[in-house]
Amino acid sequence: MNILFIGDLIGRAGRKVVSALLDSIKYEYGIDLVIANGENSAGGFGINEKIYKELRNKGIDIITTGNHIWDKKETANQLDEMEYLIRPANYPEGVPGAGFITVTVGDMEITVINLMGRVFMPLSDCPFRVFDEIYDKVSKTVVLVDFHAEATSEKNAFGLYVDGRAAAVIGTHTHVQTNDDRLLPKGTFYISDVGMCGALDSVIGMEKNAPINRFLTGIPSKFEVEKKGKMVFNAVVFYIDKDTKKVRDFKKIFKVIEG
Amino acid sequence: MNILFIGDLIGRAGRKVVSALLDSIKYEYGIDLVIANGENSAGGFGINEKIYKELRNKGIDIITTGNHIWDKKETANQLDEMEYLIRPANYPEGVPGAGFITVTVGDMEITVINLMGRVFMPLSDCPFRVFDEIYDKVSKTVVLVDFHAEATSEKNAFGLYVDGRAAAVIGTHTHVQTNDDRLLPKGTFYISDVGMCGALDSVIGMEKNAPINRFLTGIPSKFEVEKKGKMVFNAVVFYIDKDTKKVRDFKKIFKVIEG
Amino acid sequence: MNILFIGDLIGRAGRKVVSALLDSIKYEYGIDLVIANGENSAGGFGINEKIYKELRNKGIDIITTGNHIWDKKETANQLDEMEYLIRPANYPEGVPGAGFITVTVGDMEITVINLMGRVFMPLSDCPFRVFDEIYDKVSKTVVLVDFHAEATSEKNAFGLYVDGRAAAVIGTHTHVQTNDDRLLPKGTFYISDVGMCGALDSVIGMEKNAPINRFLTGIPSKFEVEKKGKMVFNAVVFYIDKDTKKVRDFKKIFKVIEG
Amino acid sequence: MNILFIGDLIGRAGRKVVSALLDSIKYEYGIDLVIANGENSAGGFGINEKIYKELRNKGIDIITTGNHIWDKKETANQLDEMEYLIRPANYPEGVPGAGFITVTVGDMEITVINLMGRVFMPLSDCPFRVFDEIYDKVSKTVVLVDFHAEATSEKNAFGLYVDGRAAAVIGTHTHVQTNDDRLLPKGTFYISDVGMCGALDSVIGMEKNAPINRFLTGIPSKFEVEKKGKMVFNAVVFYIDKDTKKVRDFKKIFKVIEG
Ligand SMILES: [Fe+2]
Ligand SMILES: [Fe+2]
Ligand SMILES: [Fe+2]
Ligand SMILES: [Fe+2]
Ligand SMILES: [Fe+2]
Ligand SMILES: [Fe+2]
Ligand SMILES: [Fe+2]
Ligand SMILES: [Fe+2]
Predict the structure, then answer these.
(1) Which of A215, C234, D93, D192 would disulfide-bridge D171, Cβ 3.0–4.6 Å?
(2) Any idea what the Cα angle at residue B169 is, between residues B75 and B242, rounded to 5°?
(3) Has A197 been annotated as catalytic?
(4) What angle do CA C231, C232, C238 make, to 5 degrees?
(5) Separation of alpha carbons A67 and A72, rounded Å
(6) Which residues participate in Fe cation 1 binding (chains A, B, C, D) (predicted)?
(7) Which residues of D touch A95 (CB under 8 A)?
(8) CATH number for the domain including A26?
(9) Nearest in space to A113 (alpha carbons), one of A8, A195, A35
(10) A259 pLDDT tier (thresholds 50, 70, 90)
(11) What residues make up the domain containing B239?
């Protein structure tokens, strides 16, 4: 069972690079399931039904999100039409949408859990404890976690906390791929951040001048997705062993194409 | 001219892995200058004269730091004895210590500037503008920057802001090596974070149970450097062309040894 | 039933001003129950059994706390000896200590709940929902809340959220008394912050030079309780009507004595 | 010389309460100069030329602002038409607008400086040092400071830092009036926060349900100015002695009218 996890898709640029590369990567690695973080897929901020369907049509099976999930006003009302989209499970009780999803791929049951860190992030419930609660229900399936967080300390701590329980913990949110992909001591596949799909020479996917100006002046301005220049496709591919339900092989993908 | 930049050394574990690997790496790559971030080199928090001398004796030429520079009470009074140690240059005027240093290596003048980000970090002056001021004075030398910061947006923005002026921008502070090492459009060598030297299966170098417990309970407790298990040596090596004063070749190092 | 709620006691200065004024204030207002926030009562940081007993001997019946509750290492192990001390109830499950206490005063049952905000504060569970859970258990008693929080938006929102359920919401943590004491539309007595007991011309109770220097330089240093100069006693006194179980009269106290 | 300083005006509600009360308050106290913080005067977020003129027509002489100054896109281009509006002086060099203004009232020269704190606030330059620089230029005039900040520690520290130099330091930003108005040891009139003009039973001026819901769910939504219910007018009035150029008398105003 080969799984491809793609980092935060940044607006049109992110969708374009997926169009350009996904089919060939799926073919090359014999991918059985594609997961991608879509929290920035609509204009860099949020996601809606239209973009969701576009992503599904491109070959993405499950879409995770993060703190930007509610950026588009229409999203909350469209959740019923987005069956394979999940949002951080540690939003409080009563918040619409699902925080995890279990799918059957071949003869394997796979659960994808979306969680959000709390350090330097919006308010949410404890992701460690919410993992425990969900894990109790799905521990017989293969458990994959998109841990959407800022601080490396929280990401490291979460990985080690669920080590041996989750098959994989894939970090998202910083939009920069880390080089620490490995198996943790009890076998969980871990990477602090898988990175993004979008313009390479940008400020985490955005055209550079607006954010640079903001750092220089403190004056807010509209950030636009960078659509020119080199484009990066960031992902990890990993193989899950049928018998152990654990990751056996894994590989980071950092592919650059001309924009 | 080959330069080795080593990520944050985490206490005894970081110093040990440097002892084990530095000489052979210097030999292997023909290193002419060794820079390392030492803000966590004394018990995980700060640095002092004793540790500084130990690091210099191990073969580190220049020591940069960051937000942890003042963790040990004695540091401020020992600055005169630590000639090759710099602290973030964007601490306000009047703060002791130097924020950059120019050294002559062979026939090349090299300036190392230490700067600190402001997003999710302690208060400091604007690192973008402080770079401009220092650059005016040292623009004829080869300029290397240790940009010690948390947010990838600020790191990306800073790299693009100084692109073509600094020969290299090496990020530190997150203790996790990123996979985005590259030459920016105008030739600056850039990596968001070079990573650390310390225990691999840890919480950014610290024994995992105390930080995990803190995330679970909110109760603070003493964090200890993890001294057992696999140890990682994180660095980048890059070659500076004599004529262009720019980086021509570069390579991340992520070496693991048994603890 | 007259209740006196005293703001954060700042170390020796705070204890001293309580010694000087509490007895006469109790007499003047015919106080039946004294509550005080003690999170800074031991040297400005935390509380322990020794200080707890001193405060109880001075005539304080119930001691609430906040984010500084764990500053002294011994506190967690001494909780059994501090029967009338509570800590924020929205610390996660499993954390030692009680988050609320019900006492009988005359023929009235009074519950004091301690909660902590989350905006600009350490990680904790949602104080709004934790209030709901506790309120379900104690709604037949008179419910008083020490809402220990930084942001006025969160304090305002909490007050209006529990309006009509809690008899009183008294804010703490900023150490500055606010002038917005009033009855909310459904009858809850509310003040954003009751203030502190400690040195008036200080930085929230601390000697001014260390914090000013920190703002100027970014260099951390030890903060000491200010023990000289004018001392302020900040509190609110309110009368609870036996029949309605609501607050009928209330009054802020801002008394200054020579140090 | 009697000066009236009015706290943050919250949208239409704030303007309405000013219309209702300003003339009579000016008359009652014999006010010579009216200053108000207008950062929330346009729909709760920002200010523009239209609202500026409305406020001037109502009798406000000088308008200070804060972190919300740039919320309306048109503001930066309209600064030339808003001669008596200032923005925080510690925005970096090159940012449009003025950070202080000197006016002549009767035979007194009065400088109003606007500064913004940095704790829990957007990035800006050090307000302590920027005060020093401006003070050097205007020390012969009567210096008043609107210190727009969140943390009471930073407000206390700033007040004591400029004590004896500024005639008055009036805090803004939290929208809740504090009860600590007093003369500091060297004579500066100080209040941590003057409060706001807007709906009393609101979340710092906003209709309560949207912010309460956000605290409960983490889902962002549009905040609207509360326009119903009781309205509060928060201000301070102080008298400046001609000879000493210091504040001699002062008084908080907390006036409530039916909405
Ligand atoms: Fe993202
Ligand atoms: Fe995100
Ligand atoms: Fe570090
Ligand atoms: Fe650091
Ligand atoms: Fe306190
Ligand atoms: Fe506190
Ligand atoms: Fe405001
Ligand atoms: Fe503000």
Answers:
(1) D192
(2) 110
(3) no
(4) 155
(5) 12
(6) 8, 39-40, 175
(7) 217-219
(8) 3.60.21.10
(9) A35
(10) confident
(11) 2-257
